[in-house]
Design goal:
Length: 296
Amino acid sequence: MSRIKIGNAPDSWGVWFPQNDKQVGPMVFLDEVAEAGYSCIELGPWGYLPNDAEELRAELDKRGLELTATTLGCDLTDDASVEALLAELPAVTALQKALGAKYVVLLPPMFTDLFTGADAMPRTLTADERAHYNANIARIGKIVREQYGLVLCAHPHVDSHLETEDDIEALLAATDPQDVSLCLDIGHHAYGGGDACAFLKKHIDRIPYIHLKNCDGEVLKEMREKGWSFAEAVTHDIMCEPWKGMVDFKEVKRVLDEVGYSGYAVVEQDMYPAPEGKPLRVAKATRTFLQDVGIG
């Protein structure tokens, strides 16, 4: 039996915001993720799923689901934004601790506008800015561990200052492993030019949590040629099913076995806005594929 627990996330149902008229309702997501054969979920944007612990527990229990993680984000170059995130922690962590979810996934800000693709902040950081950026992540991680007994997993992301392997290596070198772990997202890592399998082997001690999806190299090339925003590229399936993109998931499986990975692997396939019926169809096919290659 696999040691890896396979989950899914609201993102795979086109959920990017707490409320949005282009998104499915939370009960539809919960019904369909269970129907597709997953045993656990992430919370998604704060306010999308119920944030009352007993209400959420009842909804999860009736579908045989568990909660794996919450997700938060802020502008890590801006101290006021970091303070605002820290102010959210008491409510967010109280919910996840009540439900046994150990991980807090930290999303960095994109330096491009999600929908227009225009630069929203400088694309590169000076050495001092990089040090401050990493120090803010370390500060959040230390508070998450010491005050709440949870694990912070920084999530490298496309078009962010935590995108390339150089960015990630700098973060790991600058932070205490007790305070900062990684959520390695296979698709985002490929987008940033990285080799997820080699990175897994090198840094498995810092990777307790994984996001599963692939990145379509042809769509990525077209995105760069045409100057698409990330949201536009998502409508062209830049983040695609595991069997379609640049990463060989049979090799991913081999490496996961080699390093003895036994944590969560959560499918998180960007799909905003999600065409009707597509999330469930893709989620079912992805679950079957993962079983066929021996992941979960």
